[in-house]
């Protein structure tokens, strides 16, 4: 008789570090702290679109100049993520996240006293961009990978939804502040929101389950690994090795299209929460690449029908598009993280950081090219159709991703 691989229940029953029976596993507290932290940091994502008009009126800066600062912010948001993941392996989650939140607060607060456009680029583009990049989805991936073996998809979905939840909380407040009191109180609010969660991170979040003598939720006890030296070199080395594998380019390509069809095209802040949590639940139960294919296909279909639905008044079909598209907004994140974990193991958070960078590149390109198309053709119809077609390509790319053989070693070294 052929010996079968142990089931997940067998693995869960393996010896773990002692824990008091009946108590909630510490991993859920780590996830809760991460959730609150991401919500607090989400205030910065709600503000850029609200600043363009007031800054244009007060300083007479062109919208292109203001948009350039936002573009720098977006670019650094993506490019910082893989280095931040490597820094978390070197210095720990608490130190990196606490510093990132402080940088966000300093950058946002400094804008209150700016008088020249280069200061906007420095404060909001560079400082907030670097801080927000360190608070990007790579943070959620690192927490999930370290603290959870079971329920990783669900936890990833919840932490991803935290960003959308934070924007849902802060956008109305910041809009009211900008309208009634000006943009400076709104910037101060962002700074205070970032600083308010620093104590939660420093006092309640631990870098690894072994720090409190526990195993990951649903896993077996493992000693805390030694800090990995050379964080910047390691991030680049991981990219070099991952770029030699097919799954990396397929994941980066699909996520670039994800950014192009969401952040770069339609930026909403409301209904993604439920869809992302549900997607995390699905990722624990279904094959991640098939989920990605379904998500991109459905998103593409919705975009192809959008030009027909657009009208001066909001009709029921348009409401259905808003809800459906919103539910599919960041549903692609949990299965993308799961595929990175499957193919790249211990360095999956860093690899996902590079995949996230491709997401921001796709968003930036379509944000620019969409405006060019609008100027050239007088409508966005071509942009909607092209984005729908790109989503169909992403669905096919997702299905091409092969499952990694169980005995195959990760193509990327754990330490470089």
TrEMBL record:
Q: Report the superkingdom from the record.
A: Bacteria
GO molecular function terms noted in the UniProt entry:
transmembrane transporter activity
Q: Does the keyword GTP-binding apply?
A: no
Coiled-coil intervals, chain numbering: none
GO CC annotation, single: plasma membrane
Where does it live in the cell?
A: Cell membrane
| Alphabetically ordered keywords of this record | Membrane, Transmembrane, Transmembrane helix
Task: Please list every transmembrane segment annotated in the UniProt record, as residue ranges.
Answer: 27-52, 64-84, 96-116, 122-141, 153-174, 186-205, 293-313, 319-340, 347-370, 382-401
SUPFAM superfamilies membership:
MFS general substrate transporter (SSF103473)
Please state every residue range assigned to the domain named Major facilitator superfamily (MFS) profile.
29-406
Q: Which regions are flagged for Polar residues bias?
A: 1-13
Q: Using the UniProt annotation, give all residue ranges assigned to the region (Disordered).
A: 1-20
Q: How does it sit in the membrane?
A: Multi-pass membrane protein
> Is Transmembrane helix tagged as a keyword?
yes
Q: What is this protein called?
A: MFS transporter
């Amino acid at each position: 008789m052929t010996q079968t691989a142990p089931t997940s229940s067998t693995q869960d029953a393996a010896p773990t570090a002692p824990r008091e029976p009946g108590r909630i596993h510490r991993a859920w507290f780590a996830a809760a702290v991460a959730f609150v932290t991401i919500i607090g940091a989400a205030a910065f994502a709600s503000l850029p679109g609200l600043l363009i008009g007031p800054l244009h009126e007060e300083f007479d800066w062109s919208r292109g100049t203001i948009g350039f600062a936002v573009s720098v912010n977006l670019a650094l948001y993506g490019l910082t993520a893989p280095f931040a993941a490597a820094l978390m392996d070197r210095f720990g989650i608490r130190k990196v996240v606490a510093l990132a939140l402080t940088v966000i607060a300093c950058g946002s607060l400094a804008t209150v006293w700016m008088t020249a456009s280069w200061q906007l680029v420095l404060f909001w583009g560079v400082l907030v961009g670097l801080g927000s990049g360190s608070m990007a989805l790579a943070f959620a991936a690192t927490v999930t990978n370290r603290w959870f073996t079971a329920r990783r998809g669900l936890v990833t979905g919840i932490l991803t939804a935290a960003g959308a939840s934070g924007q849902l909380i802060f956008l109305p407040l910041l809009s009211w502040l900008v309208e009634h009191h000006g943009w400076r109180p709104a910037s101060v609010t962002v700074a205070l929101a970032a600083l308010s969660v620093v104590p939660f991170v420093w006092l309640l979040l631990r870098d690894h389950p072994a720090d409190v003598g526990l195993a990951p939720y649903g896993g077996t006890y493992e000693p805390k690994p030694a800090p990995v030296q050379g964080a910047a070199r390691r991030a680049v080395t991981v990219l070099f090795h991952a770029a030699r594998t097919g799954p990396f380019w397929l994941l980066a390509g699909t996520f670039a299209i994800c950014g192009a069809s969401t952040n770069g095209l339609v930026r909403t802040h409301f209904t993604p929460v439920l869809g992302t949590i549900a997607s995390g639940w699905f990722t624990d139960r279904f094959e991640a690449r098939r989920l990605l294919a379904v998500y991109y296909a459905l998103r593409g279909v919705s975009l192809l029908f959008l030009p027909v639905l657009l009208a001066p008044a909001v009709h029921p079909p348009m409401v259905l598009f808003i809800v459906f598209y919103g539910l599919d907004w960041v549903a692609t994140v949990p299965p993308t993280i799961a595929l990175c974990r499957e193919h790249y193991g211990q360095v999956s958070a860093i690899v996902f950081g590079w995949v996230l960078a491709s997401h921001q590149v796709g968003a930036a390109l379509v944000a620019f090219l969409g405006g060019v198309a609008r100027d050239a053709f007088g409508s966005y119809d071509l942009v909607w159709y092209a984005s729908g077609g790109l989503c169909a390509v992403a669905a096919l790319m997702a299905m091409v991703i092969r499952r990694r053989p169980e005995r195959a070693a990760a193509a990327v070294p754990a330490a470089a």
